[in-house]
Design goal:
- By secondary structure, the chain is α+β, with helices and mostly antiparallel strands.
- The protein contains twelve helices and 34 strands.
- Strands 2, 3, 4, 5 and 6 form a five-stranded antiparallel sheet that branches. Strands 7, 8, 9, 10 and 11 form a five-stranded antiparallel sheet that branches.
- Helix 4 crosses helix 5.
- The relative contact order is 0.08.
Length: 681
């Protein structure tokens, strides 16, 4: 069930005195397309100059997702003298929806010879390129078999299947006692569920969800439930409370005391946009959805949001131009193997919405068309995989039971092998006896190499965390807890992926293990910087020492509330006064290097101790002298107010949809920060 939002932005050029035509215009402007069509048809019988009415009928069919019916009206509008750029582009889309690919290319090629509108010209060039790929798509071999799920489909629309805990949820307009949605002439859609063992349906158990979910005067649909069954997100809209097509938003409800709570509007909605088709990632910590919000690539784009350790949803980001196009992308679905299925009429396809799959490897995203029979020249959308090789999807292809039907499918590829990669870790610290122990309650965030936040976990009493990772990719992890040093660690799957040809099971899980040590911040406790070496009788920073000092730079950037003293120590050989001066110069040289890397000078001071703080008195061996020669740092100040403001700043950025990885220095923290509530990988 697709809604089109672009290309009818021009002012109606032809004004007719006929009251029927004016009434039709008002219905069209209100989005009541089905009623508008009837009135435009009446106006046609009274008016010889019918180009505008014909075009408006075609647009009404297009905007109510009946693009194939619009074809003769676009053609007639052109024959009647309608020459605005959008009529040629939309005519080509309707021809494509009816598999008339050659005619669609001809219309676009002729239009491009005399195009006036730069935006539509760009879309036409984009669509013409897609049409030139049709033959390649038709020739692709696939291993899918599909079957209409006759037990559940009716003459009404059934779509957006979602399987969870032995029940199949779906959206339908079957309730004939409900109100009529004036845009399409169908009943308002509601969410239903039925007991199911895969494709085996217990038809006697079909029931509509309660009125707390389904309103009588709204369309509900596209349900998503997290893997624990505790959180549901669904779309609701067209209540008439807001004018136009953007009155669709995401709602969230929690399962408590054996029932769903009162749904609430999610804060990730853009109130000026259409927000719909939600889907959880396998771990439930990412929500994918579609939206027409500003800043996208055109039409409907796919976005993601993540949940933080406080259970708040934010960090909204566009999935990028590898997935999104100038046209529409919607109905995302994350499979068990980390792939993202979605539907699009912007990528090269067979007709209206086609089903594609996005896969990330080596930091790059590749898009694949699922081919026939998964796709047709009609709308094919809303894939849901209930096992690695089986699932459901929706289509309005010929031969079904109704407007949209639910289908089952199976991937019978004999070489199908699925490998899931995970990074499992634990957060630790040192206790008073200097023993390494579990550290619970640490907030762990994983980022891609290009600093995109991919996930966030608050560790429990066992200190454990787990993230899905992709093949051949670099990551870094940041772990933090109040009164502990924020710590980062890198991780890579490069060169660590499995050879699928050597695997015998359908599914293989590969788990990488790691550990993140967070040290407690104790004022004046010394931490030694290893491998800080200087040339004999020199205070110049060597290249190998710079690498070690860079680690301290990272610590300071990751921990804005702290100020430190960096100290240099010598052994006891030589004159005490000389050693004191040498250590002072070395400490000052190290501090100067750290400041040159962007650290505020007020946060670090140099101190030379010479031989006054020997670890080993009366050292004799070279090894003992080396122990005494060391560079250390200690925290001299920990500003909890700065820490609080940083947390508020991060929360504000999270709610806005942006997360800065490298936290700003103390002097740059704003005095006032919001405390309001809240990859594809």
């Amino acid at each position: 069930m697709k809604i089109k939002y672009i290309l009818f932005a021009s002012t109606l050029l032809f004004l007719v005195s006929c009251s029927t035509f004016k009434r039709a215009e008002k219905k069209f402007e209100k989005g009541e397309f089905d009623s508008a069509i009837d009135l435009y048809e009446q106006a046609l019988k009274k008016d010889d100059n019918s180009a505008q009415a014909l075009f408006s009928i075609a647009e009404s069919y297009r905007l109510s997702n009946r693009l194939e019916i619009a074809e003769p009206y676009y053609s007639a509008a052109i024959d009647s003298g309608y020459t605005e750029d959008e009529v040629f582009y939309n005519y080509s889309l309707s021809l494509k929806a009816n598999s008339n690919y050659d005619k669609a290319k001809e219309v676009l090629e002729n239009y491009l010879l005399q195009a006036n509108n730069p935006e539509i010209k760009k879309l036409a060039e984009f669509q013409l390129n897609n049409l030139n790929n049709i033959d390649d798509i038709l020739e692709d071999q696939t291993f899918y078999t599909v079957k209409n799920l006759e037990a559940i489909n009716t003459p009404a629309a059934e779509y957006a299947p979602f399987f969870h805990d032995g029940e199949l949820y779906f959206t339908s307009t079957r309730d004939e006692e409900g109100r009529i949605y004036k845009a399409t002439g169908d009943n308002f859609s509601d969410i239903y569920k039925v007991k199911s063992k895969g494709a085996n349906i217990d038809t006697a158990s079909i029931e509509k969800l309660s009125s707390i979910i389904n309103w009588s005067d709204a369309n509900e649909g596209s349900v998503a439930i997290d893997n624990r069954g505790r959180t549901m997100v669904f779309a609701r809209g067209n209540t008439g409370k807001r004018k136009g097509l953007n009155d669709v938003n995401l709602y969230i409800t929690r399962y408590r005391n054996s029932k769903w709570s009162e749904p609430e509007l999610m804060k990730i909605n853009d109130p000026e946009a259409w927000n719909s088709t939600p889907a959880f990632s396998e771990d439930g910590r990412t929500l994918y959805f579609s939206s027409t919000r500003e800043g996208g690539f055109g039409g409907v784009d796919l976005y993601s949001a993540t949940v933080n350790s406080r259970g708040q949803w934010g960090n909204v980001r566009n999935l990028g131009d590898k997935i999104n196009t100038p046209e529409d992308e919607m109905f995302p679905s994350a499979s068990q193997d980390g792939k993202l299925y979605f539907s699009s009429n912007g990528h090269p396809g067979l007709g209206k919405l086609d089903i594609f799959v996005a896969e990330r490897k080596g930091g790059e995203i590749t898009i694949s068309h699922l081919g026939k029979p998964m796709n047709s020249n009609k709308d094919d959308f809303a894939v849901f995989m209930y096992s690695p090789d089986r699932g459901f999807f929706s289509s309005d292809r010929p031969g079904g039971e109704g407007r949209d039907d639910i289908y089952t499918f199976k991937n019978e590829n004999p070489n199908l092998k699925i490998v899931n990669y995970f990074l499992a870790g634990v957060t630790t610290t040192h206790n008073k006896n200097d023993e390494e122990v579990i550290l619970p309650g640490a907030n762990v965030r994983m980022f891609s190499q290009d600093s995109v936040l991919l996930g966030e976990i608050l560790t429990g009493q066992d200190g454990k965390f787990n993230f899905r990772v992709s093949e051949e990719e670099d990551y870094f992890i940041i772990a933090e807890k109040d009164n502990y040093f924020t710590t980062r660690k890198t991780f890579s799957t490069v060169g660590k992926t499995l050879d699928k040809s050597q695997l015998t099971s359908l599914i293989t899980n590969k788990v990488f293990e790691t550990e993140i040590l967070l040290e407690e911040i104790i004022l004046d406790k010394a931490f030694e910087l290893e491998n800080i070496y200087y040339d004999f009788d020199s205070a110049n920073i060597r290249a190998d020492a710079a690498l070690e000092l860079d680690k301290l730079v990272t610590i300071l950037k990751d921990n804005p509330p702290i100020k430190i003293e960096l100290s240099s120590h010598t052994d006891a050989r030589g004159e005490a006064a000389y050693n004191q001066e040498l250590s002072k110069r070395r400490a000052e040289s190290a501090v100067a290097y750290i400041i040159s890397q962007g650290i505020d000078p007020s946060r670090i001071k140099a101190k030379g101790y010479g031989e006054s703080q020997l670890i080993i008195e009366d050292a004799e061996t070279e090894e003992e002298h080396e122990t005494n020669r060391r560079t250390e740092f200690k925290v001299t100040e920990y500003d909890k107010e700065v820490a609080r403001r940083i947390r508020e700043q991060e929360e504000a950025q999270f709610k806005k949809g942006t997360v800065e990885v490298e936290i700003k220095e103390e002097k740059e923290v704003p005095e006032e920060a919001s405390t309001d509530e809240f990859d594809f990988n």
